[in-house]
Design brief:
It comes from Papilio machaon. This protein is mainly α. 69% of the residues lie in helices and 0% in strands. The protein is globular, with a radius of gyration of 14 Å.
């Protein structure tokens, strides 16, 4: 959990500062293919299981657009303790 918090801090700083490198801050989406995926990763690292569930939205949410089911399941397993809520969420993500 401590490592996730540190990664969240570092990636949040990247997400805040990188757009300043472009004349038009929105250009970052054009030049960095995985920009939105990075933003979603920051969301997962700082979010709760409930937040992730809402962002997954049964495979129709923003997380589903940028992460495969295997990627998201692996992140959840690495970040959260084995609880019934985690098990239920993992079973929903297929």
């Amino acid at each position: 959990m401590e490592m996730a918090a540190q990664l969240n801090e570092m990636y949040t700083l990247v997400v805040q500062k990188v757009p300043q490198l472009f004349p038009d801050g929105t250009d970052v989406n054009v030049y960095v293919k995985s920009w939105i995926k990075l933003q979603e990763l920051v969301f997962v690292l700082g979010g709760s299981l409930r937040d992730i569930d809402l962002h997954w939205d049964d495979g129709a949410g923003p997380l589903a657009k940028h992460f495969t089911t295997d990627e998201l399941r692996s992140l959840i397993k690495a970040l959260f303790q084995n609880t019934q809520f985690r098990a239920n969420l993992l079973s929903k993500i297929k």
